[in-house]
Amino acid sequence: MASSMLLFLLYSLILQSISVAAQTKSTIAIGDSHTAESNTSPWLLSPSGDFAFGFLPLNDTNLFLLSIWYAKISENTVVWYANGDSPAPKGSKVELNANDGLVLTSPNGVGLWNTTEVLNSGVSRGVFNDTGNFVLQDGNFNNIWETFKHPNDNLLPSQVIDKGGKLSSRLKESNFSKGRFELLLQDDGNLVMHSINLPSGYINKENYYESKTVGSDTSSAGTQLVFDRSGYLYVLGEENEKYNVSEQESGVSTIDFYLRATLNFDGTFTLFKHPKSSTESEGWTIVWTMPDNICTYNVELGSGVCGYNSFCKLGNDKRPTCQCPNRYLLVDPDDPFGSCKPDFIQGCAEDELSKNRNDLYVFDTLTQIDWPKADYVLQKPFTEEECKKSCMDDCFCSVAIFRLGDSCWKKKLPLSNGIYDAATLSDAKAFLKVRKDNTSYVFPPAPIIVNKTNNRGTLVLVVSVLFGSSAILNVVLSVAICVGTTIVFQYKKKLRRFSQSDTGVSTNLRCFTYEELEEATNGFDKELGRGAFGIVYEGVINNNTSSETRVAVKKLNSFLLDQAHKEFRNEVNVIGVTHHKNLVRLLGFCESGRERLLVYEYMSNGTLAHFLFNADDEKQKPSWKLRLEIAIGVARGLVYLHEECITRIIHCDIKPQNILLDDNFNARISDFGLAKLLNMNESKTNTGIRGTKGYVAVEWFKNMPITAMVDVYSYGVVLLEIISCRRCVQEMDQGEEEKAILTDWAYDCYRDGAVDALVEGDNEALDDKGKLEKLVMIAIWCVQEDPVLRPSMRNVIHMLEGTVEVQVPPYPSPVSIQYSLI
Ligand SMILES: *[C@@H]1O[C@H](CO)[C@@H](O)[C@H](O)[C@H]1NC(C)=O
Ligand SMILES: *[C@@H]1O[C@H](CO)[C@@H](O)[C@H](O)[C@H]1NC(C)=O
Ligand SMILES: *[C@@H]1O[C@H](CO)[C@@H](O)[C@H](O)[C@H]1NC(C)=O
Ligand SMILES: *[C@@H]1O[C@H](CO)[C@@H](O)[C@H](O)[C@H]1NC(C)=O
Ligand SMILES: *[C@@H]1O[C@H](CO)[C@@H](O)[C@H](O)[C@H]1NC(C)=O
Ligand SMILES: *[C@@H]1O[C@H](CO)[C@@H](O)[C@H](O)[C@H]1NC(C)=O
Ligand SMILES: *[C@@H]1O[C@H](CO)[C@@H](O)[C@H](O)[C@H]1NC(C)=O
Ligand SMILES: *[C@@H]1O[C@H](CO)[C@@H](O)[C@H](O)[C@H]1NC(C)=O
Ligand SMILES: *[C@@H]1O[C@H](CO)[C@@H](O)[C@H](O)[C@H]1NC(C)=O
Ligand SMILES: *[C@@H]1O[C@H](CO)[C@@H](O)[C@H](O)[C@H]1NC(C)=O
Ligand SMILES: *[C@@H]1O[C@H](CO)[C@@H](O)[C@H](O)[C@H]1NC(C)=O
């Protein structure tokens, strides 16, 4: 600011000294040149001294504009400029030469601008006319090039524009680059004003001014736009009719006043006057401005008068100002006519679906404002309340306009053609959806820590570090993360798509309403359990035939669903077509707003975890035979998922909590397909911790492909738990640390020929020692850290059923694949 003031003062001083000196010439000859320096006088002055031609320094820069300005008034009012798009660095030189006319070159010789049009016309001099016109003439005093024929954003008295000629606004008051508005005398004689889209210059087809001088029965078409010597501006018809551009009387004397007609950077076209007499100091004042209200200008494919998300307000001088709504900020703080951006995040991708939108957003209400043409839907008839609610519940909606008493237009960003108009928009209310707090949108969201659902088996990290590498692995792996996209075999995708889309919904899944499930669960009253995916409630549904069915309703953690909305139905259908006696059946689902619920068969005998670990009597372990049946059941369920159903499914989270027991104590796997449904892929690695401590295979941790073998690993761990009725990771008393990690302990016992220790006090199992040892060997095969060594689930079944011999298993974490974990 200070420096620009200084420049300004400096410049006024220079001007004064010049006008006093008044020796500068008004004609140049071939070879004359002028250099851009901070303290040089103009190159030329018109004979009367009214106009100056030369380099004008641009504020705050070392750049100069080759231009014409009023020499006798203090404001630097530029009426013509050569190099608005490429201002000249200090030291640049303009020279008149016979072949090319004026040539402007930078100090390092780069051509910045020239009068290309005169090429080889034999320029012999340049004459600066009192009208403010700089003319190149040939040897016969013919004008071969004039600044009046190459206007920028200004017309001076006696200047005309022919058909096809135009004015082009500058970008900002103080930036002379090509701006966003044009005034054009079309070939059909119509004088029009329109906006263009920078930088391509695409012309928006809508005009905000038209002289309509296109010729008719009673009048002829326009041929010229004339700013005559008396200061009248009109379109001259073919038969010399004068069609006034403005209906207002000008009546300004060109003797007493400087006049200029300027296409302002804001798009308005204004006739300005300035008293010539230096005693009057009122400066430039407006005689008239066209059009009457530029704020009403609407374009289909542009921002309108103001930038995007901004709105236009007309001043008393008919010139617009632009304003950002609350919580919107200028993209470029130095460009008040530019676009505004919200200082908060919104939109479907950003919405935190787990939260009620009313907790996140609030409406900022503006009146008498509209953004025409940003609508995507009209709701009518609608009340104001309905309008607001509809916008709040709609992640596309950024603004709702309520007008006409019953009409609700919903709009999305960016908003365009914004207008404030007290007269025509007196009934309009704009509800801008803004985020309540601007600190809460930390993205990506904080990680979800999967809490253990019980408190008996607290993980003891310190203890386990004392153990061998596999122990470290087991524990460190507990932070493993599920990479969901690879979970379902990709090559089956097509098949699934086919079977789903082309044959219609091939499942009998029932689509519930949220209200139905709310009622069925008595308002989500009785919780059966909760896990990473959500909370499970008990419910009863009426199934037409007056029979009631008990169900388990899983309310998915909507936070996890975030990206999975589109896939929801597909994935639910995938789950829905799986039918196996060792899987929990999906009966239905519900998609309502942000909520996604799954309705499963009710399993009366709880989880395998409860069955194995929560026996009332510590000594009285569940029946060995039953446990064997369960182990085989789980294996069968997994074989089905891995190999037999239409879409192969990797479970990703096999653990006793996810294995349920039905009335007959059949093992039933639950939660299969959810890893895919919740679409946990790499982008989520920081947010969705999947897999459960102690059950996860090394692949999760290493950057290895996720295959069905991850379930085999988890199955091996579960098998050991079934054998021993012990958690895979368990806090142990002093002196028993070696038993804390079940997989390690089991291998140690097996190696030492002491598998009995695993089933201490379990006489049933001890009596079946052959089988016991075989199961331990199978489990050790399953928990091999090298996935290649693990058997497939089908092989596991064969081994369990005895149709395949069980070989001696290797040590699960051999040195060869002891990964450097830290
Ligand atoms: C004049 O400008 C044109 C294009 O802008 C360029 O091709 C030409 O070389 C220039 N002439 C001189 C003498 O700089
Ligand atoms: C200025 O130019 C106009 C048009 O070329 C011409 O008629 C007029 O005589 C010139 N005025 C002066 C003072 O040279
Ligand atoms: C230059 O300075 C004047 C006076 O301070 C100011 O009005 C004008 O907007 C400035 N222009 C630029 C290029 O910053
Ligand atoms: C004028 O604006 C353009 C586009 O924003 C920019 O590239 C250029 O540097 C500006 N010119 C000056 C002199 O500030
Ligand atoms: C056009 O303007 C001139 C000068 O102000 C005036 O005499 C004339 O009546 C106007 N014509 C029309 C049609 O308004
Ligand atoms: C949050 O909003 C307040 C008030 O609108 C504002 O002062 C503050 O700068 C904003 N903070 C951030 C991080 O945008
Ligand atoms: C985990 O447990 C802690 C302590 O019980 C609780 O504060 C926290 O909310 C739980 N987190 C989740 C995601 O359930
Ligand atoms: C409805 O009842 C029938 C017979 O009781 C049962 O087979 C079916 O699974 C039930 N459907 C649902 C959605 O509960
Ligand atoms: C109830 O039974 C009727 C008649 O059998 C049938 O049309 C309807 O689809 C059934 N509704 C449900 C929810 O099963
Ligand atoms: C298992 O379910 C059956 C049938 O609902 C029930 O009779 C039995 O008591 C349940 N057993 C346990 C241990 O909950
Ligand atoms: C996540 O999964 C989606 C859907 O499969 C996919 O479009 C996207 O590219 C994945 N993102 C990453 C980072 O892998």
TrEMBL record:
InterPro entries (alphabetical): Bulb-type_lectin_dom, Bulb-type_lectin_dom_sf, G-type_lectin_kinases/EP1-like, Kinase-like_dom_sf, Prot_kinase_dom, Protein_kinase_ATP_BS, Ser-Thr/Tyr_kinase_cat_dom, Ser/Thr_kinase_AS
Name listed for the protein in its UniProt record: Receptor-like serine/threonine-protein kinase
Class in the EC hierarchy, top level: transferase
Signal peptide: 1-21
Transmembrane segments: none
Keywords from the UniProt entry: ATP-binding, Disulfide bond, EGF-like domain, Glycoprotein, Kinase, Lectin, Membrane, Nucleotide-binding, Receptor, Serine/threonine-protein kinase, Signal, Transferase, Transmembrane, Transmembrane helix
GO CC field: membrane
Binding-site residues, ATP: 555
PROSITE patterns reported in the protein's UniProt record: BULB_LECTIN, PROTEIN_KINASE_ATP, PROTEIN_KINASE_DOM, PROTEIN_KINASE_ST
EC number(s) recorded for this UniProt protein: 2.7.11.1
Reactions catalysed: L-threonyl-[protein] + ATP = O-phospho-L-threonyl-[protein] + ADP + H(+); L-seryl-[protein] + ATP = O-phospho-L-seryl-[protein] + ADP + H(+)
Domain Protein kinase: 522-801
UniProt domain Bulb-type lectin: residue ranges: 30-149
Compartment(s) where it occurs, according to its Swiss-Prot or TrEMBL record: Membrane
Membrane topology note: Single-pass type I membrane protein
CDD domains according to UniProt: B_lectin, STKc_IRAK
